[in-house]
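Pair request: fold both.
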Amino acid sequence: MNAAAIAREGRRDAERAARGSVIEGAARVGLVARGVIYLLVGALALQIAFGDGQRQADRGGALAELSDKPFGSVLLWALGAGLVGMALWRLSEALFGSVGRDGRTAKKRLLAVVRFVFYGFVAYSVLSFAAGSGGGGQGASDKQSKDVTAKALDMPAGQWLVALAGVGVAVAGVWIGARALMRSYQEDFKLGEMSPWTRRLVDVTGVGGGAARGLVFATAGAFAVRAAVDYEPDKAKGLDDTLRSFADTPLGPWLLACVAAGLVLFGLFSFALARWRRV
């Protein structure tokens, strides 16, 4: 190999290293931002469970809660920037593959595209709220869910589309919960850098938080299927209405409190991912 070829290879290695450092930083900041949202939503849901909730337990309520804090505007912009980082990380996984043995498979890349679109939308809504447009306002998740369902039901084969979407969300919820219970997330961690005590704590947050998150997804999907079958868009529920529905079960507010505590645990789990995840 001549000197010119060696120089080109060196530049490519440097570019890959630089890109890796930027993407890793974006991923870790994004995971922290996700953790903050889940912590706030879980805390708001706990307040509702104990009869003291004044805000919606969804992203809009979380943003409104954050905006009331000192330097709230700065915090909102930082949160939005972090979620942009999350979206860029998922985009890089779609383009270049992710860590792990099957990180470059079509299945993983497609999942990364879905996550990129989702976090891109979430980042946009947070930045819109920070800019004062109210894009993430209180009650937004419930209203948006009903509006989107109503429009979808009016389309040709709309009932089938809504039902299939609901089934997809419900299946995703079961998958999320099952992976948490099986502790499949451990393959993403740098376990060698964690003490046994830290691993046990991470397992508590990973299992409890993942199970609660999966239950919320599965329940929201079931409501969407019911809305499609009954042809009633108002039966579709956003995050706030889905969480409140747990208080209407025979277990009453205690089930909502358990799910809310699980969402808080998932927020803490996201912080652990930000620290020890392999990116």
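--- second member of the pair ---
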Amino acid sequence: MDLREIIKQNFFDLHLHTTASDGSFTPSEIVEKAAKKGLEVIAITDHDTLDGVAEARLKAIECNITVISGIELTTKYKGRNIDILGYNVHATQQLEEVMKRIQTHRMTRANKIIEKFCQIGIVISKADVEKHSIGGVIARPHIAKAVVEKGYANSQQEVFDRYLGDGKPCAMDKIFLSPMQAINLIHQAGGQAVLAHPALIRDDNIVRELMQLPLDGIEVWHRKHKKKDIKRYKKIAKQYGKIITGGSDFHYDGHHMGDFGYHA
């Protein structure tokens, strides 16, 4: 589905996570939630996987909503994490190989993070974490939930602030692509590549540098973007001839699911 047409319709959310990666709800549940909100088009954009898309599309038939096949790839540029969203992608050999490599590393990384927690006296096991991983993929939010459940912290956010965030004692890097590698993978998979939540990069000079790459668009609307951010990134999008998109980056009910569009 053409991204330029989607944003004219309003009532969309093009950045949603499910239990296929680090979301709290199954793909079917996400579709139901979106339909109840009156959304017309959504994108499932799980981290490093397309596994949630088929289930979401099946449920979408029942709910009369359009589901776009999406993915979110984390890249590294000038020492910063840069997330690239891919829309209308299909599985290719190259993308499958990269996703498999990243997911294998994710499991190794999760085990090492659990070990780090134990070393500082926060005793959790892999079994404790797996209880929170419905889709079988262990991500940092699942580890944070286990830490909270064991009574070592009051909230997932506290776990990230004290232990799991960048530079914190239990943090570990994931496998990173370069922005150009991610863009190429998405284009080879027939998709459009969009820079995610640019305000979170916290450096518009870097955003402008990234806009000179063959990105197709930029995520203008996001639950953490203020009105001044939306205005600024619309201007940057126009300057560089990029499509504008938007989404909530929804993981759990504490996040506000769309709708986005020109009315936002």
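Observation on the second member. The chain has ten helices and seven strands.
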